[in-house]
């Protein structure tokens, strides 16, 4: 990626996403492969009169810790990380994995201990301004079935960095999404139909959030929290699912009264079942999201991008976003994508509002 594009990306993160102000403390957390973007963000934060704090993870350290730490170590809350989460003003998280399968040998139960112990850190951090982005690495490109150069171009397009005015493009998408939210705000019942999926759920009284690139870069979705006891029917994930260094294929779930009562997968079923048994909230839906980014049009194996594919739906098992009115609590938040672009549709209170990936309501209808 060129220095010019990296600089534009950093400016977008610092100014549009995080709105950094003088005197603020901004945490920049990443891995070594994202060094060019980390450095660009560091310079941008300093030039805005704010104070950057850099945390870089080294390849293999997390894997070693999860394999070798005692249960007491796994269950401990790192005090420095908690203090940082409580005292910083904003956080830029740049994912940049050199090996997306490095966690595949980790026992999910040990990972669950760490996730539960660090929940106070996650909650404290979520109350501050934050943005998540992902730097193009060869590992991500391989997962997407693309060359690194082609993947970099895809990433650039997804964030509108190839446009003369990226901020203006994000603001325009935000306005289009606001038009769809204006319609969805009055909807009570949603039915999602696609290959292997026929799921009905209630969103009555819930708040829709306009995700226009402030917290995810890229973004391009609207989302809400469905009524926790409402999901009924079946869901089939149309794409392979990558989580915890594992690839799961053909995930199929059955819901009754909001809860997963049956779960299968063509590959990775044992891992799927272990995630569903993490806690009581793991078997309920915490999020319903609608992908709307016109620059994201193909599966890459990275949920940050894939859940924003225009014309798709994603449903997350586990933790709700409180700002939607959702009340489900879990250490899990796992997005599963339903591809409604071919033969799929969404019905809202009995009216077909999206078919084959094309919306019939909202500002673009």
β content, as a range?
25-35%
Number of domains: 2
> How would you write the strand order of the largest sheet?
14-13-10-6-5-18-19-20
Uncertain segments of ≥5 residues (pLDDT<50)? none
Q: Would you tell me the overall average pLDDT?
A: 96
Please state the overall shape, judged from the principal axes of the Cα atoms.
globular
Describe it for me?
The chain is α+β, with helices and mostly antiparallel strands. The chain folds into two domains: 133 residues, Thermophilic metalloprotease (M29) (Thermophilic metalloprotease-like); 189 residues, no CATH class. It has twelve helices and 20 strands. The chain has an eight-stranded antiparallel β-sheet with strand order 14-13-10-6-5-18-19-20. A hairpin with a 2-residue loop joins β18 and β19. It is globular. The chain starts with a helix and ends in a 6-residue tail after the last strand. The mean pLDDT is 96.
Short description:
This protein is α+β, with helices and mostly antiparallel strands and 365 residues long. The protein has 2 domains: 3-135, Thermophilic metalloprotease (M29) (Thermophilic metalloprotease-like), CATH 3.40.1830; 171-359, no CATH class. The protein is 32% helix and 28% strand.
């Amino acid at each position: 990626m060129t220095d010019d594009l990296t600089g534009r990306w950093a400016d977008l993160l610092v100014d549009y996403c995080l709105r950094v102000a003088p005197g603020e403390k901004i945490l920049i957390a990443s891995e070594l492969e994202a060094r060019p973007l980390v450095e660009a963000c560091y310079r941008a934060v300093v030039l805005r009169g704010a104070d950057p704090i850099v945390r870089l993870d080294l390849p293999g350290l997390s894997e070693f810790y999860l394999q070798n730490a005692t249960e007491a170590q796994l269950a401990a809350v790192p005090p420095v990380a908690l203090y940082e989460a409580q005292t910083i003003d904003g956080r830029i998280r740049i994912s940049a994995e050199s090996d997306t399968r490095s966690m595949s040998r980790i026992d999910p139960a040990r990972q669950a201990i760490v996730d539960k112990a660090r929940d106070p850190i996650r909650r404290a951090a979520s109350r501050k301004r934050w943005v998540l982005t992902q730097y193009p690495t060869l590992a991500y490109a391989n997962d997407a079935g693309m060359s690194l150069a082609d993947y970099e171009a895809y990433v650039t397009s997804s964030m509108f960095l190839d446009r003369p005015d990226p901020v203006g493009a994000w603001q325009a998408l935000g306005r289009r999404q606001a038009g769809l939210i204006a319609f969805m705000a009055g909807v009570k019942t949603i039915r999602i139909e696609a290959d292997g999926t026929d799921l009905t759920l209630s969103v009555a009284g819930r708040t829709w959030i306009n995700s226009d690139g402030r917290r995810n870069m890229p973004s391009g979705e609207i989302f809400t929290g469905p009524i926790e006891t409402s999901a009924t029917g079946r869901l089939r994930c149309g794409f392979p699912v990558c989580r915890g260094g594992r690839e799961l294929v053909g995930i199929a779930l059955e819901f009754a009264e909001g809860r997963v009562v049956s779960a299968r997968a063509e590959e990775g079923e044992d891992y799927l079942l272990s995630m569903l048994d993490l806690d009581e909230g793991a078997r309920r839906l915490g999020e319903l999201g609608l992908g709307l980014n016109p620059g994201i049009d193909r599966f890459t194996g990275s949920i940050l991008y894939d859940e924003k594919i225009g014309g798709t739906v994603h449903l997350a098992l586990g933790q709700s976003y409180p700002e939607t009115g959702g009340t489900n609590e879990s250490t899990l938040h796992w997005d599963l994508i339903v591809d409604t672009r071919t033969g799929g549709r969404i019905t809202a209170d009995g009216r077909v509002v999206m078919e084959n990936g094309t919306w019939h309501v909202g500002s673009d209808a």
